[in-house]
Specification:
Largest sheet: 14 strands, antiparallel, barrel
Order of helices and strands: EEEEEEEEEEEEEEEH
CATH class: Mainly Beta
Distance between the termini: 13 Å
CATH architecture: Beta Barrel
CATH topology: Porin
Oligomer: single chain
Number of domains: 1
Number of strands: 15
Low-confidence stretches: none
Strand order of the largest sheet: 1-2-3-4-5-6-7-8-10-11-12-13-14-15
Structural class: mainly beta
CATH superfamily: monomeric porin ompg
């Protein structure tokens, strides 16, 4: 858990289909040292390079952290955000794609190309020790409406996740924490009928993190992205982190979605002495065990 942090990220997905989609994110968080509160700001932009879709969303975060026991902590968070969607007639749907990823026919989807704005609310909690965590989150809890149609809403997105950090070795060098560890993680995501399961295994030898993951859509064997494999590599140094991940579909579908590339850069201020060495009232928080890039 950091005292403050700033993170920027870029993602290019479905790069084999009409130039795919890109996402840019920027966030900052600050934890008040004298109490259990934290605040943050987020900004995200989604767009298709071909000009068929643009989405902007900005939000404010509030989190509350408390110790339930000496080695058990709870964090609860809320987010309020405002966003806008700008689709156009160049927006591409799956039924328009030929086997090679090119666009061949009009879509049968019902769509409206009017710009729409919305307000959205999210919430979540995380229960964690130094090695274990479990949590849930929900986005679009208010099912925000897009336009005047009552049936045109963004359905809630629910997620549950857990993992465990196995330490092989941990030590300090000049007050910098070093470790050798392995971390299996699992998560489940659902939005209406859409379901996704993710499993990732991380290995950390400070300052390097390597991850290998597998994702699947239960019951959706014929979709192009029904299953994917991913890899992550990251390096951290004195609070700075840079990470790169690669995801590729494994489905036998002939539609060429192409891979997904993601890169992230962050800086966080963490007092590892408070987390690992000190005790009593001076040890006011534990480290969240899940890896972050």
């Amino acid at each position: 858990m950091s005292d403050y942090s700033v993170t920027a990220g870029h993602s290019s997905q479905w790069t084999g289909t009409n130039s795919g989609y890109s996402t840019q994110v920027l966030s900052g968080e600050y934890r008040f040292s004298e109490n259990r509160n934290a605040v943050g700001l987020t900004f995200a932009s989604d767009r298709s390079p071909a000009g068929g879709f643009t989405k902007l969303q900005a939000g404010a975060l509030y989190a509350y952290h408390t110790k339930l026991r000496q080695h058990l902590d709870l964090s609860v968070g809320l987010q309020a955000a405002y966003g806008s969607l700008s689709p156009s007639s160049r927006l591409v749907f799956e039924d328009q794609l030929a086997p090679d990823g090119s666009i061949t026919s009009p879509t049968a989807e019902r769509n409206s190309f009017e710009r729409a704005s919305y307000g959205t609310v999210a919430a979540g909690f995380l229960l964690f020790t130094r090695q274990f965590w479990v949590g849930t989150s929900a986005q679009h809890l208010n099912s925000p409406a897009l336009g005047e149609s009552s049936d045109n809403t963004i359905p809630p997105v629910f997620q549950a996740h857990t993992g465990y950090r196995f330490y092989v070795k941990q030590y300090f060098v000049r007050n910098f924490f070093k470790e050798v560890s392995f971390i299996p993680t699992f998560s489940y995501t659902q939005q209406r009928a859409f379901k996704r399961v993710d499993a990732t295994f991380y290995g950390i030898v400070t300052p390097v993190t390597i991850g290998l993951g597998y994702s699947m859509l239960p019951g959706e064997k014929n979709l192009p992205a029904a299953s994917t494999i991913s890899g992550l590599a990251g390096v951290s140094h004195k609070g700075f982190k840079i990470g790169y991940s690669y995801r590729h579909p494994l489905s036998a579908s002939p539609v060429a979605l192409g891979p997904t590339h993601e890169i992230s850069l962050s800086f966080e201020k963490v007092d590892y002495l408070k987390i690992f060495k000190r005790s009593g009232t001076d040890k006011n928080y534990n480290r969240i065990a899940c890896p972050a890039f």
